[in-house]
Here is the input.
Amino acid sequence: MTVPRTSQDQPALSVDGRVVLGSETTLTPLEVGAAAATPTAVTGEDLARYQLVQRRNTGGAWFYWIGGASILNSLLYAAGSQWGLVVGLGFTYLIDGFATELSGTVRTPIYAFAIDVMLAGSVMLIGRAARRGHLAWYAAGMAFYLLDGLLFIAVQDFLGIAVHGFALYGLWNGWRAGRALRRIETAALVATA
Here is the structure.
């Protein structure tokens, strides 16, 4: 059975790789002996779990932003730029500054950049663990970023302090969502046992 569409400005819709709403919609009759699909109702618990997973992952994504901004800041510092992204790690600036002073050159030594990349990569790995629900790694990453924020307090960089505070707020909300999700999943396991 083919049903023509009434409007051509609607986008096509695909389900499981099959176009179900395109320039015309083809409805196939049920095969003999096939049971009609019964939709399952979404419960409030399913919705709460979905929302908590989204909040946990959104909070954990901050670690990716922090790590990426830190690598970009290291590249900019090595290129001689005087600006950077405040969401990045202050520790990378500290490492680059010490390495430049120790080497006695105006350029950032390659070993400083390698340390920066390892540090930023570690933050990204913490983000991966956080988005998978490892709350201990989540908390360790937040503690590390809080320590990093103390560097901005020491040099009185108020924009850096504000951005670190905002990022820590996002991380905290994600960690709380992960903790609430763990409680829901534990309660569900106990109920089924």
About this structure: The mean pLDDT is 86. The first strand starts at residue 2 and ends at 4.
